[in-house]
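Fold this: Enoyl-CoA hydratase/isomerase family protein
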Amino acid sequence: MTESEVRFGEWVAVRRHGARVAELVLDRPKAMNAISTEMAGNVAAACAALAADRTVSAVVLTSTHERAFCVGADLKERNSFTDADLGRQRPHTRAAYTSVLELPMPSIAAVHGFALGGGFELALSCDVIVADATAVVGLPEVSVGVIPGGGGTQLLPRRVGAARAAELIFTARRVAAAEARELGLVDILAAAGEDRTDALALAERMAANSPVGLRAAKRALRLGHGLDLRAGLDVEDAAWRTVAFSGDRAEGVAAFNEKRTPDWPGE
């Protein structure tokens, strides 16, 4: 059950579900959640608040539009831009994607309908993507004379490999849900209309675990990716030391031995 909602500007909201789950809502339905300069700022502000909230253990990124998660950059806004305008916008849009990518707790994208260009890059910035049967994803930027600039050229190869990412980016093709799951573009395939429900349920399962452990595990996964094994193990060791001497570790061990549900201090 949704307990509260806080707005971050006109087009982004954060809703709380229970004690530990937050929903980051894209809410610009008239534009199919196209990311304008103002909306990019809304996303970054919401993520900054979530990152600072130690009571949040998992975040689900959702959309209020019935037929789209997010269609990417607001090309109507950009149509009137000068080169100088585009240059001034760039730090704002980059900050939006980075803010999602750098959320310290696990993040899940709930995708339905169109998730294209920057919209798909928002999903790629999350740790897990749940897509329903209506989802259509892709990075079509080269078809309008640019390249993926919200992390797509770096995040997609890490998901599906360099050759597959090259094929998808160079052809600008759109991929329907079933093929997207087969290729690894999305992680979990939900029934039509169930992406948000399934993503929130997954977030609840994650959030039942140690808040300190979740953040440390995410840090180890993200920082260790791409390193050689020895360097990666050093990253893991540093993250392990963060949790090994925490209140959560003491509570987790005690709860296990006492056969009860942990009451995580989150410190």
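The radius of gyration is 19 Å. The domain at 211-258 is CATH 1.10.12 (Lyase 2-enoyl-coa Hydratase; Chain  A, domain 2).
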